[in-house]
Amino acid sequence: MTGSGESARRTVWLDPQDSGSVRVIDQCLLPFEYAEVSIRTVEAMAAAIQDMVVRGAGCIGASAGYGMYLAALEAVDLCGSDADTHLERAGAVLEASRPTAVNLSWAVQRQLRELVGLADGDGRVARAREIAESIADEDVSSCAAIGQFGLELIEEVYARTSKTVNVMTHCNAGWLAFVSHGTATAPIYAAHDAGIPVHVWVSETRPRNQGARLTAWELGEHGVAHTLIVDNAAGHLMQHGKVDLIIVGSDRTTINGDVANKIGTYMKAVAAADNGIPFYAALPSSTFDPTSRDGLGDIPIEERDPREVTNATAFYDGHQIEPRVAAPGTGAVNYGFDVTPSRLVAGIITERGICRASESSILSLYPELAGGVGSR
Ligand code: MRU
Questions:
Q1: Per-residue pLDDT tens digits for 18-44
Q2: Cβ of 249 less than 6 Å from ligand 1
Q3: Which of 171, 155, 176 is nearest to 8 (CA)?
Q4: Residue 108 CA to its chain's centroid (Å)
Q5: So what's the pLDDT on residue 371?
Q6: Atom of ligand 1 nearest to the CA of 98
Q7: Would residue 274 show up in a list of annotated catalytic residues for this protein?
């Protein structure tokens, strides 16, 4: 289960036996238990996104696309404004489930643009299904292309050093965070598959430990050498020359290249700059927010339950447990993401190539994103 190759498995898909059921891998249980879940309603999809049964920018974008297909199914017998109202409410429910990853609202809006105003209920369902499948398929092909473009960066280091290339990442921007392949991990898988010796520093990524649980599991399944570190060790490794390259994912990237990603990313970027280590973000174009050129000011940062900080989640004796790790009575705040300013980003690896983290360079690859600032 590696997420590479044409037959790579997916994190979200329509049940081929039951067109009323969207199937997802339950990421709250991984890597200790593998389970798939059936999702049949918009409310259930929104809850799965909020509770992080599905998580990661591309994966929740695709899940929201399928969520809108479920909304069209729910509205199949409604006509005119009743149908439109149902779809718009469903879109609002899905968009409210997690605020930072722009892929989610991008997918909802893509569906709404086409579905609102369609008179025939069955036609609406068929169109919603096509769009949902396109969103998922495009995510797969974009991530595969990102892998090939990012591979050049790893090849370049290897050609220069002839030594194992040490890549650091953060959180999980692997195939679990997308429909398949992943973004930050895609170049790593491509390098490993091409026979380049590559080793990955995996940050555990408190509080939910997506690095320790998901990235470590993915890399292990693919046979990629990796070592788990506590988040606080990243700067130390950089100071001691143990990191060649940093590749992270993104949940929202402004048109001038400010990168919102899992909390802790910014500190890695600062340490990378201090040590002259190139820091790249890998993302599909669905992660660009063309309406903003001020990441710090504009990007909504999710705040999650403080209990994720005061308590750890662990598996013990076959059960998931949540032991308290903080002093009794101590309060906590739980920001899910931070923003790395474009000046700290060496480049952005996209499905159309690698560009600099600047408006002109991003627009040279994506001219269709011009004119978005101020459009919201
Ligand atoms: O909170 P999550 O797990 O949904 O966060 C997503 C992430 O894992 C990261 O921020 C990731 O690096 C970018 S999204 C693929």
A1: 999 999 999 999 999 999 999 999 999
A2: yes
A3: 176
A4: 16
A5: 81
A6: 4
A7: no
State the burial class of residue 326 (Cβ atoms within 10 Å of its Cβ: 0-12, 13-18, 19+). middle
Q: Is the CB of 177 under 6 A from ligand 1?
A: yes
| CA 345 to chain centroid | 18
Q: Give nearest CA residue, ligand 1 atom 8.
A: 172
Are 326 and 312 spatial neighbours (Cβ–Cβ below 8 Å)? no
Residue 220 in 3-state DSSP?
helix
Is-contact 269 279, C-beta < 8 A? yes
Tell me: the pLDDT tens digits for 119-175? 999 999 999 999 999 999 999 999 999 999 999 999 999 999 999 999 999 999 999
| Of 151, 186, 150, the residue nearest 280 (C-alpha) | 150
Which of 49, 178, 185, 261 most suits a substitution to test ligand 1, by most atoms within 8 Å of the C-beta? 261
Which residues in the chain come in under a pLDDT of 50? 1-6, 376
Q: State the pTM of this model.
A: 0.96
Q: Which of 72, 90, 178 is nearest to 131 (CA)?
A: 72
- Which listed residue (231, 244, 251, 289) is catalytic? 251
CA torsion, ordered 117, 120, 122, 128, to nearest 10 deg: -10
The rounded Å distance from CA 159 to ligand 1 centre is: 31
Spatial distance between the Cα atoms of 352 and 361, rounded to a whole number of angstroms? 12
